[in-house]
Amino acid sequence: MRTFNWLRSSTATTVLGAALLGIFDGGEAAAQSKQLTLCWAAWDPANALVELGKDFTKQSGIEMKYEFVPWTSYADRFLNELNSHGKLCDLIIGDSQWIGGAAENKWYVKLNDFFDKEKISMNDFVPATVVGYSQWPKNSPNYWALPAMADAVGWTYRKDWFSRPEIQSAFKAKYGRDLAPPKTYDELKQIAEFFQGREIDGKKVYGAYIFTERGSEGITMGVTNVLYNYGFSYDNPKKPYQMQGIVNSPEAAKGLEFYKELYKCCTAPGMTNAYMQEGLDAFKSGQVALQMNWFAFFPGLYKDPNVGGDKIGFFVNPAGPNGHFTQLGGQGISVVATSDRKDDALAYIKWFAQPAVQQKWWQLGGYSALKAVVDAPDFPKSAAFAPQFLESMGIVKDFWAEPSYAQLLLDMQKRVHDYVVADKGTAQQALDLLVKDWTKVFKEQGKQVASQ
Amino acid sequence: MTTILQPDDAMIPGVSEPAKSRATRRVRGLSDRTIAWLFVAPTIALLLAINIFPLVWMIRLSFTSLNLSMSYLPLRFVGLDNFTDILTDEDVWIRLQTTAEFVIWSVALQVVIGFGLALLINRQFRGHSFWTTIILLPMMLSPAVVGNFWTLLLQPQIGPFNYLISLLTGVPPSSFSMTGQVSLAPWTIVLVDTWMWAPYVMLICLAGLRSIPDYIYEAAEVDRASPWRQFWSITLPMTVPFLMLAVLFRAIENFKMFDMVNLLTSGGPGSTTELVSITLKRAAFEKWRTGYSSALAIILFVTVFGAANIYVKALNKVKQR
Fold first, then answer.
1. Keywords for this entry (chain A) (predicted)?
2. Are residues A287 and A298 in the same domain?
3. Rounded CA separation A263/B65 (Å)
4. Which residues of chain A have a CB within 8 Å of the CB of B285?
């Protein structure tokens, strides 16, 4: 009986406590009104952004809070947040492929009026980044983001190994040419084959590191660098969404075969599910001669005490028989439509777009897309990889940025990994199946897909 | 109505009857029944909110075209289209086959090894408790931890597993990749799952073995039954219900296995180890095909539920024998 009495009074106390907690919680939220949360991936440039953001806090009095998620769960985490209309992020640096979905679903605030009001012109930014990160529909004057982090796939190589006389002479004896950073994929494969299994400083090394990751976007972001240069396109430029004979053209199939050959001949054992971090580990541990990776990591690699400085060199994604392109990476910064602090978030973007801030962003290790920074005469000399970065940004191509990009991406991940890593079927069959998958996705999206 | 305070009140000297009645009413503000409901209500509300409502909602969504990455498109009722799509999709059947093979092989190995370990542990020997603890350690770890450290153990260049195999067979350690080769990856997930969960089967079997009364063995000794005969005629039949229970638990668990396999292989190489749970996760939370994935989840639920029911009936028959 006494227990029941006690329970009655406890129930009342609990209800009262909960009510008070609610009041205090509300009070705390009110006190935090001058705070912005910025969401991005957890990687080197994010640290640079934290450093840069301190200036914004000094100027505006707005505290910056960051939500950085590892790349492997970055898309899952933030697309889930955006899909569920969450309020975690006020600002988001979202991947380039999200732009279509974010615009159509109204996850991002449209920035046209804001840009007009603040005299921010998209003509001041590198064109590829404007199309890639800001516009939806593509090539239309509808802006949903400010280009924030320009990026593309590039390559690093062991400059110190390349410069050793005994290695140079062995290479020349075998291939009849000087050992130098490759200009074409055939040259790259020769170099990779040359280094594969070679003993350098008493250690067995391997030819090349390339992306093979299955779960998120890895192998697609790797293979497209070869496919583009062999003649692959996403659709017929004259007939949007017509993919038959374009995606699965014989040239594209040859490109896919080449990627598999490169994977089979010249990568380290066990690289069956490897992406950015595995590449960095392989290069930093002195395991590979050539590494495919995003430019975003190059400042960190250049500073590495073991393989950086004079020991590292950089080159642009090599050309193929039918073109010279590279995969676009990078992101734009957007204001989340569900944010309660849109004005403060826009103030951040206004601040971030200033040339002086963009200059500092580049100096700290971020990649500015502002022409005033990258077109400055001293830019190519400002970093060892700056000339290659500039050249790459002029030849970038990006994956689909449709609202259904995730389905399109996962379909490609599956088909390419099945062929390249799991030895399933032929390259032509893999691309034929990919066309079938993509056609189904676009039809579900309500698009007209021409078969020829 | 049940009175609560009367015995105590009656013992309070100097308290008048009307005052007592007022006090009782005040405390009685909430009846026993109301109090009981108040305490059960949060559980019921929680159950409704996180189990029943989502289930009903999911059934509703399975008949729609909802894709959360394209939520601006009008929601269409598509009838049984999602179910038809799934059941006529060759890839889904391949994933189900992969899952079935994983479940059959891993559960079979766990039962054999778990039962063997239980027979060993059931005997009294020196260090018995120590070895029992050591054997039970894997099942106490989180599947995410297991997935991560086996990834390191199986790494072809630095992983001790490959070096051990190399030591035993002479094959160069980096010449094979347990998680990266089509021929080895399915066995790798079976191996790691067996390593983790055979001790669990052992525990269940041990309970079965300890429940066999000694006098049965004593009677068999008197009848001069050989140890082999005792095993076949006493030990095995009397532990079969426990073994079947272990098979049921492990089969259900492995049918929905996700975390460990996702960390070890991500379903690769290609789609070699893509279990149906990984397919479901990709459809629901990466491709955002909510309608389709709801239908797939229902199909899987019905499959497991149906199979488990048939199995439980069989288990009951065995128990009744």
1. Periplasm, Signal, Transport
2. yes
3. 39
4. 76, 80
* pTM (2 d.p.): 0.86
Cβ pair B286:A7 closer than 8 A: no
In-domain check, residue A314: yes
For residues A406 and A365, membership in a common domain is answered with no
A25-64 tens-digit pLDDT: 444 444 445 899 999 999 999 999 999 999 999 999 999 9
ipTM of this complex: 0.81
Cβ–Cβ below 8 Å for B4 and A5: yes
Flag whether pLDDT at A375 surpasses 70. Answer: yes
Q: Please, where are the H alpha helices in A353-426?
A: 355-364, 371-374, 386-393, 405-420
Q: Is residue A66 part of a domain?
A: yes
Half-sphere exposure of B155 (CA within 13 A, CB side): 12
For residue A309, give the DSSP letter: G
DSSP A103-115: HHTT-B---HHHH
Which residue is closest to B278 within chain A, CA to CA? A215
Q: Do the Cβ atoms of B30 and A76 come within 8 Å? A: no
Q: State the Cα–Cα distance between residues A345 and A364, nearest whole angstrom.
A: 22
Fold of B81-320: MetI-like fold (1.10.3720)
pLDDT band at B317 (very low <50, low <70, confident <90, very high): confident
